[in-house]
Amino acid sequence: MILNSLLCCTYILIGSFSSLVTFIGITEYTSYLATMVGLIYLRYTQPDLNRPYKPPIWTPVLFIIICSVMVLRGMIFALAQTGILVVYVFLVSLYYKYSWKGRRRVRI
Fold first, then answer.
1. Which spans in 1-108 are helix H?
2. What is the pTM of this model?
3. Which of 12, 38, 62, 74 is deepest in the core (most CB within 10 A)?
């Protein structure tokens, strides 16, 4: 959260609000894409989970296609924001790798 706040403040201080909007858009659609991929993964690896709502398979697949186009378009036209996002994801993954290293895994 601190890194995200620093990035937002940096973009605001630079005066490039469109860069901030582009960065947030790429980040949000990447998160949505990962969520839908996880939904499809869980649907096929754990089909017996209790789900209050189970959408037809074409809905998340269509959403994945649309999110992929949005993320790729952002990556092509905004290389600086994409580079920052890649560094951000790398730092967050390192944080989770080393902060969860000594913890015991809980099975549900």
1. 2-14, 17-45, 58-77, 79-99
2. 0.67
3. 74
